[in-house]
Design brief:
alpha/beta, Rossmann fold, 6-stranded mixed beta sheet, 4-stranded antiparallel beta sheet, 10 strands, ABC-type phosphonate transporter activity, ABC_transporter-like_ATP-bd, MetN_ABC_transporter-like
Length: 267
């Protein structure tokens, strides 16, 4: 049984631009899906339509027995507790500590007075420490978020999303602002955690080589339509041309491979 199913998901803007057209996908438990495509293909829009940060024009988003597109604001708020979101720009509260940012993942579960006074239940605090241990930030628990590196901030974002105890992760460009070594570490961390918890994830990612190294399945978008859906091994020159257009993909792959081989020397 799929965890998430999209049926005919469509998003058209008022100026007639078609961001998404008739997207149909099913994501299974524990499956990590890489969403690739050129800029403007609709990758971020697709992720944001799933949890209705962007309202779809039509279609269904079936998650845990509910069509999210039909939920009221109150019902949607409840459903979003089960959907962890990890952002490209981290979306941390800079003046708060690492621990406080992780605990903010529990805001949908605790009374307002607890969050306002930062008096979270002990089991939430214990879980937050365990998550910080898992993402290798335990020693930085009391450090302000604005004192962290980009990779560390992304790890805080991962821990915060996991603090929700979600049933689905939506991840928007988690490696875009990171150097190649840190980017691989973040992708490895995300995919390991997903497999440990059988947690499905959709990752919007520009780096095709990075995606093929870590994800289980790749979905390619072009002009808001799914033009490829298969395993990393099936992402050949023909598929890449369908997604991105004409390019000398063999030459590109060779250059990228050289970069990967040289990187440890300069890490």
């Amino acid at each position: 049984m799929s965890t998430l199913t999209l049926k005919g998901l469509t998003k058209h803007y008022s100026n007639s631009d078609k961001a998404l057209t008739d997207v149909n996908l099913s994501i299974q438990a524990g499956e990590v899906v890489g969403l690739i495509g050129p800029s403007g293909a609709g990758k971020s829009t697709l992720i944001r339509c799933i949890n209705r940060l962007t309202e779809p024009t039509s279609g269904e988003v079936l998650f845990q027995g509910n069509d999210l597109t039909q939920l009221s604001k109150g019902q949607l708020k409840q459903a979003r507790r089960q959907i962890g979101m990890i952002f490209q720009e981290y979306a941390l509260i800079e003046r708060l500590t690492v621990m406080e940012n992780v605990l903010s993942g529990r805001l949908g579960y605790v009374p307002f007075w607890r969050s306002f006074l930062r008096k979270y239940p002990s089991h939430d605090i214990q879980n937050a420490f365990a998550l910080l241990e898992r993402v290798d930030l335990y020693k930085h628990a009391n450090k302000r978020a604005d004192a962290l590196s980009g990779g560390q901030r992304q790890r805080v974002g991962i821990a915060r999303a996991l603090a929700q105890q979600p049933s689905l992760l939506l991840i928007d460009e988690p490696t875009a602002a990171l150097d190649p070594k840190t980017a691989r570490q973040i992708m490895r961390l995300i995919t390991e955690i997903c497999r440990e918890h059988q947690l499905p994830a959709i990752i919007n990612i520009h780096d095709v080589n990075l995606a093929t190294q870590f994800v289980d399945r790749i979905v390619g978008l072009n002009s808001g339509e799914v033009v490829f859906d298969g395993t990393p091994e099936e992402l050949d020159e023909t598929a890449l041309t369908t997604i991105y257009g004409e390019e000398d993909w063999n030459a590109t792959s060779h250059e990228d491979t050289q970069d990967v081989e040289l990187e440890p020397e300069f890490a």
